[in-house]
Amino acid sequence: MIVVLPDAFTKYSGSMYSNSPTIDDWETFIAQDLPAFIDQRYRTVASKEGRGLTGHSMGGYGTMRVGMKQPGALAALYAMRGALANALSAQAAAWAPNPKNPPEFFDLPTKDGEIQPLIAAKWPANSPLVMVDQTRARLEEHLGSR
Fold first, then answer.
1. Residue 142 pLDDT more than 80?
2. Is-above-0.85 flag for pTM?
3. 3-class secondary structure for 29-92?
4. Number of H helices and number of E strands within the chain?
5. Distance, first Cα to last Cα, the chain
6. Is residue 63 included in any domain, yes or no?
7. Is residue 3 part of a domain?
8. CB half-sphere exposure, 28, CA atoms < 13 A
9. How would residue 96 be classed by pLDDT, with cut points 50, 70 and 90?
10. Are 79 and 63 in contact (CB under 8 A)?
11. Is the pLDDT of residue 61 over 80?
């Protein structure tokens, strides 16, 4: 067994394992780039069947997110306490990046006490429950391509 522990910590306390133009493409890195890197350097089972993902807290969320959004990448998932602590900045950087809004380079769901509907909608859109239908479609597409 090969265990790899990537550090997904960012200046906002975490990546939310999402692809973002301001904090990088963490979902792609975890599901595709990192496994390819390990496969090139070690003797592995270089297929979905030889891969799993686990995480705790933000990593638990990331486990579910990556597993749901990249169903062809992993055979096993184990999410532990998929909760978030001090995550508002990390969520904003991952889900509402704005390269034109220094110094944080993200937008928040409220501005001057007013809800910003287009920004606020990005939070529930990244909920694992909302991703279920998206995941079902990706999985059906993946299985149909075999």
1. no
2. no
3. HHHHHHHHHHHHHCCCCCCHHHCEEEEECHHHHHHHHHHHHCCCCCCEEEEECCCCCCCHHHHH
4. 7, 6
5. 27
6. yes
7. no
8. 6
9. very high
10. yes
11. yes
Number of separate domains in the chain: 1
Does residue 10 lie within any of the structural domains? no
Distance CA 84, CA 56 (A): 9
Q: State the pLDDT at residue 143.
A: 81
Which amino acid does the sequence have at 112? D
Q: Which long-range contacts (CB under 8 A, 24 or more apart) does 78-86 make?
A: 78/52, 78/53, 78/54, 79/54, 79/55, 80/54, 80/55, 80/56, 81/56, 81/57, 82/55, 82/57, 82/128, 83/57, 84/57, 84/58, 85/57, 85/58, 86/13
The pair of structure tokens assigned to 15 is: 């990546």
Alpha-carbon distances of 144 from 7, 47, 96, 137, rounded to whole Å: 34, 18, 33, 10
The verdict on residue 14 lying in a domain is: no
For helices 58-69 and 128-144, the axis angle rounded to 10 degrees is: 30
